[in-house]
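Provenance

Sequences were taken from public entries as deposited. Structures were produced by running a predictor on each sequence independently, with no templates supplied. The record for Fungal-type protein kinase domain-containing protein from Phytophthora cactorum is shown for reference.
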Amino acid sequence: VASDLKLSLAKKGGAWLQDDDPGVVELEEGRIHPDVQTLIDGDKMKATWKIKDVLDANHLPTPQSRQVHVLVEVPEGVSAPENIRKRKRMEDEDAPDAWIKAIKDEQVAALPATCEDLKEHLKRPLHVKVPVNDRLFQIMLSKNTTGELSSILDKLFEPEPRKTLSDITAGVLRDVIDPLGSGSELATEDTYHHLWDSLIAMLLRLVSNGNFRRNTNASTSTGLYRPDLCFYYKNSNICVFRGEEKASGELQVPVKELHEKLTWRYDAAPYVFGYAAVGLQVCLVAIRKDEMTERGAKVEMIETYDLGDLHGRLSFFLALLNFSTLFRPVVDLIQPLDILEYGTIERGNGVQISFAEDCVVKTYPLSMPSDDIIRNLRELHRQMKKHSVPNVVELKKTNMKKKYVKLAPVGRLSPPENVRQLLTALRDILKALVALHAINMMHRDLREHHRRLRK
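Predicted structure for Fungal-type protein kinase domain-containing protein:
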């Protein structure tokens, strides 16, 4: 407490000590100079006194910049705050999974601007190194006979192995350092899913409190485009990191898919992120706005990694950990979405609604008379188009055999940002209702689960 402190005025010969005085310099180095000891042994101030009162009573000038005016003696057995903080920091860094917490907590002050800046960011050494046990340490040493791993090992791992690791850290490192073998010329995408998920999706979920969804090829039957893998940071509905994957072929094929089918909708964010994978080759990319392209997006390839060898996996591991620290500041720049981007929801009546890049697909269950529903929708949209009803969705495609319809929505999934946008949206809805009523189109109600119009 304050009353336990011993306070002395830092004046020598009627003048304040300067920050470059020998006594002050030695004090900062942990030693007590004879001049300082003399001051400490002299008259003491009370902790309850105000500095102004002491100055006035002793006719002392007000201390200026770079002058020391009070010496504080901490009683024995009481740790200084800095020592407490230092000890706490050391304890935190010695915790089994401290490296994970450090990545989650990192605050990136400024987003890397260029592709080269991003590349440098991905190569940064970790602030808190990953612990490794002796078995995995020896595996890495045995493959470092030429020293090519030394640099990446220094950036990633503690210098000495630990006897034990937490189950979480051990599981992550096992997938990176000593993974199960996978892949051959005859391999399919499914063959690589375990490797891709363990080194990418599961790792990102661990270090950034996010979630991922892997989209199946079932959507291709409806012509619905969604990335093979979508990662959502924390509670965001925005796909901040997406992946396109192939079992074999040219890497440029999934790279092109990352931007050719993407419509830019990410506001003030300079980019979102992604990866293209062909077997064991993985390329990390930034996807940027580009008004010169049809959909407004382009891809910049940052770096390509070979997951078939240890150096490639370690480099990719470091890159992805550093990549994840950029998710939060990027998502913070993007207007929130009400509905999960590229997600699927199921209504109580069994209808599935899948959200894709520029359309929504409604798939009807076997229990519903889908043929009649689809016929009614065709007629409804024919009438709306004939009478130029504004601000309504467009029916793009129907398929009675596969029981689905494809609709192109108007606007975007995000809620209004202010009253003006809300009033604009309400105005547009009322315009549509007026036009529909004029041609005897009636609606049941306007609650969210009853927005299908009837004649």
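The chain is about 35% helix and 20% strand.
The chain has three domains: 2-73, 97-336, 344-454.
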